[in-house]
Please model this.
Amino acid sequence: MRLYLSMMLVCVSISVLAQGGDSFVSVDRWVDQEQKDSSWSLDEWTNHLIAPFDQQVARMRAIYRYVTTNIEYDDRAYRQGRRRINRTIEDVLYRQKAVCWGYAELVRAMCTVAKIPCVTVTGYAKDAPAPRSAYEKSNHAWNAVQIEGQWHLLDATWGASTLRGNTEFTLVDDIDYFLAQPDLLIHSHFPLMKMWQLQSCPVLFEDFLAHRFESGEEKCEYNYSLHIDYFLRLDYYEQQVAIVREAHAVNPTHANRKQIGHALVDVAVHRKELGDRYFDRDSVSHAVEEFEAATRIFDVAENLVDFYPWQTKSMVFAWANLVQALHREEAQGLRKHEEVKSAILQLQTHISRPEIDLELPIRHELEKLINGLLGQG
Model:
């Protein structure tokens, strides 16, 4: 059974799409007959699959066809709550099983090789009206891809399952999940960030849940392309914070609040690690800037989520490293002792908190650092 691209999905800017679904028969046939050599890397295999095709859309189809026909949905892992059984793309390829995140990340990885801009989109998926309580947090992942300068949506997970006749996934509105028409895909897929709806009139979350998709007469001027361009210029950590902030704004649940907190922790850890690298290179002023940013972000995150032990330890180390960097600046005459002392007392407060569980040797080293610096004052 082959998936055919509906003529409703035609995009006039891409000539091959104007030919209709039959234009992909040769692509599908090529992918179906090829066998991956076990010694090939993902890069080698992707380049082999796309080699016969010049147009981006045909290359994208080859990737989609391979993923949807060779990766099986891991229903057992999903039902047992083991959604992250695949830790890497290599795990997906080896097991040939995945849940939605594995499908979307494999598509993204292959697109990277094929030089096709691709993003993994997370959000909510459903095939019938549902109450808000059923969607405490996002439950699905799919992809947005840029072909010949225009963004499109695809869902390899649902594409694979409908191809196999899997009744766990409904073929909503009888659409093809390869370069799906945005105003149809929104019936079943609601992204955390509204720009990935790819619509000038984004659907509200309440309307998505209620399955209300009547087109109004009002003029809409939401420029999703502009928002996507801005988002893609952010670094990875800024993107993650932007995603969870918008997710919480759309659906302010406890789970989404926790996601904001954990995303901020990731940013704080990243800034701390940048500070470590600057400090190792004796670029003290830059180190101070990064450590100060890290400690501020940790403080915000602590108001949103309970830290895991490793996150708590990272926060304490950020304060300890900030103290040492500030002390270095004080020795150079660039910092007043009062500023250094303030940071030392903050560190002392953190390690004295009963919930801060540090190994005894680490605690002793930190106490030695604090007492030594306070004694110098």
